[in-house]
Amino acid sequence: MVDRELRIRMLVAALVGVVAWSGPAALIPVSLALPILCQSRPRRLHRASIAFAYYAAALWPVVAAGIALYGWHAIPFLLVITGLATSVLAACWLLPGAVLPLVVTAVPPIGIIGVANPLTSAGILFPGTCWVGLIATALIPFGIARCPACTVPTVLVLTLTLNGIARVPAPPAGWRGVDTNFGDIRNKKDAAAEFRSAEWIQQAVRLYDAQVLVFPELAVTRWTEATEAFWQPTLAELAQQKRTLLLGVGLPIHGGRDYRNVLMAVPFRPGTETASVAQSIPLPWVMWNPIAAKDRVPLSPWGRRTLRVSGQRTAALICYEQLIVWPVFTAVSERPTVLVAISNAVWTKNTPIPAVQASGVRAWSRLFDIPAISAVNQ
Q: What sign does the dihedral 371-281-264-354 (CA atoms) show?
């Protein structure tokens, strides 16, 4: 029978999961209570139970978003999927200590579903400290367990000092992200939805005079030769003005129904090929689904993460990648000078997920002192 103390710790862990991932960036460090709670319980099954409560609470918005996507009849399926993900993440806390589970849930293969990782706290606690701050964050639970009287004051002093001197990294001059309200442009009941969105984007290109304009994920659902022909007047205008357009698009794979979810740059130099960087970890099951018959997005956790745009090494974080750790690690390893975060929040706009995405991007931007530009479709 579960003892009373364990039930209390599970309840606290669930509360931590809800609060830490409710949206505000300042609340993310609350998630460090998870490794502290787990580390204080020597029995491994108890540690996994505490972690299960934390991840189950943190993942509840996934069910709400799934209902918006699939309908109420999908609730049993959604509960099974989130339950499996929660169980896998919780099982990692059967491992000893606090650092090892944090790392295992951050890197593939578990890192593919590694949401709500407390390591994200590093950018809020220790801005501008890069990998050193990340390591320090991972060691905080160990320090609190060994010597709380030393660790807590030290962390507080460092956090207050670093946040007092840190500044939000400024985006490159002439770069601008454009949010949209297209809704679901893939709606089969509205055949003209994508045409209207494409027309709006091309008008916006003429309205804004920014050197680089960024538009959201899947602003163009499929970029084909026919699409490029439709966009040709706008592309020619961009080339003449020496401006760059960054678009979230779907690039068909071998002309089939599968596609790559990419950030595509239309360069201003005539005669050059379009450059793009693909989403490395698409949303499991919804986008990355090996058993689906069509509309699959490939998984490439070790793929290239940056491209050069207007003199900047540009790293892309596409939608789901803003909720996990590994795409950030691989992107930062390529030493980008700007982060571009694009997403499509149509199915999640009534949940905390878009706010959590924005807070996650902000945290990583602060930690590595890399400016971030975002573009969201709702």
A: negative
Domains and CATH numbers, the chain: 4-126+129-165 (no CATH), 175-377 (3.60.110.10)
Write down the residue that tokens 């009287």 correspond to: 149
- Exposure b/e, 315-354, CB count within 10 A at least 16 = b: bbbbbbbbbbbbbbbbbbeeebbbbbbbbbbbbbbebbbb
**Angle value at C-alpha 361, between 217 and 112, nearest 5 degrees:** 75
Instruction: Count CB neighbours of 53 within 10 A.
Output: 24
Exposure string of 55-85, with b = 16+ CB inside 10 Å and e = fewer, is: bbbbbbbbebbbbeeeeeeeeeebeebbeeb
Residue 291 confidence class, pLDDT cut points 50, 70, 90: confident
What is the total residue count of the chain? 378
Q: Phi, psi at residue 254, to the nearest 5°?
A: 55, 35
Provide the pLDDT confidence category of residue 168 given band limits of 50, 70 and 90: confident
How would you class 181 by CB atoms within 10 Å of its CB: exposed for 0-12, middle for 13-18, buried for 19 or more? exposed
- Candidates 373, 356, 374; CA nearest to 120 is 356
> 342, 376 in Cβ contact below 8 A?
yes
Residue 12 scores a pLDDT above 70: yes
Provide the total of helices (H) and of strands (E) in the chain, helices listed first: 13, 9
For the segment 120-137, the average pLDDT, to the nearest whole number, is 98
DSSP codes of every residue in 259-294: EEEEEEEE-SSTTPPPEEEE-SSPPBTTTB-TT-SS
For residue 91, what pLDDT band results from cuts at 50, 70 and 90? very high
Judged against a pLDDT cut of 90, whether residue 212 lies above it is answered with: yes
28: number of Cβ within 10 Å: 28
Structure token digits, residue 177: 């992200």
**pLDDT (tens digit per residue) in 138-160:** 999 999 988 999 999 999 999 99
The C-alpha atoms of residue 119 and residue 34 are separated, in whole angstroms, by 11
Residue 70's pLDDT is 85
